[in-house]
Design a protein that fits this description.
Elements lengths: L4 H29 L22 E3 L2 H10 L2 E7 L4 H16 L3 E6 L4 H7 L6 E6 L2 E7 L4 H9 L4
Parallel strand pairs: 1-3, 2-3
Antiparallel strand pairs: 2-4, 4-5
Length: 157
């Protein structure tokens, strides 16, 4: 099933409008609080965590658990620097981080073999979607941006 160019443009326009509104909210909050900087994620006006616009490099099991617990929807990308399909997917993964309300966590399986083992990432790339701290989807092998965004959209609030 393929989207028409008009519906894809409308969806993109709506996404851009929402992103711009969130950016305005964050700027207002920074102006009100007089703070600049902070953590990798800002806090929205309703007190919830805004998702980072860039992938979060996970270093260790505690950091992984913290990311999964902190955000409603998380796309976990299990990758290796030497993996060709992983390198090919990097722009799509970065675009998903910037374009969706999901946090994107990157797990280097060579640096974090214990996490890879826990996640059952026997082949790479392996991508998992977490919703409310639970694995709700698993994708193995190279995926395109639309597939990743669709998997996230199924579980976004």
């Amino acid at each position: 099933m393929t989207e028409s160019p008009d519906s894809a443009d409308a969806e993109k326009s709506e996404r851009e409008r929402i992103r711009e509104e969130k950016l305005r909210e964050l700027r207002r909050e920074l102006d009100e609080n007089g703070e600049v900087g902070g953590s990798s994620a800002d806090v929205t006006n309703d007190g919830s965590e805004a998702t980072p616009d860039e992938p979060i490099e996970v270093d260790g099991s505690d950091a992984f658990q913290r990311v999964v617990a902190e955000y409603d929807v998380v796309l976990v990308d299990c990758y290796a620097d030497w993996c060709g399909p992983c390198q090919m997917m990097e722009p799509a993964v970065e675009a998903v981080a910037a374009a969706t309300d999901a946090a994107v966590a990157k797990v280097d399986i060579d640096a974090n073999p214990e996490i890879a083992r826990e996640l059952g990432a026997r082949s790479i790339p392996t991508l998992l979607v977490y919703a409310d701290g639970e694995v709700v989807d698993r994708l193995v092998g190279a995926q395109d941006r639309a597939t990743l965004e669709s998997a996230i959209a199924q579980h976004a609030a």
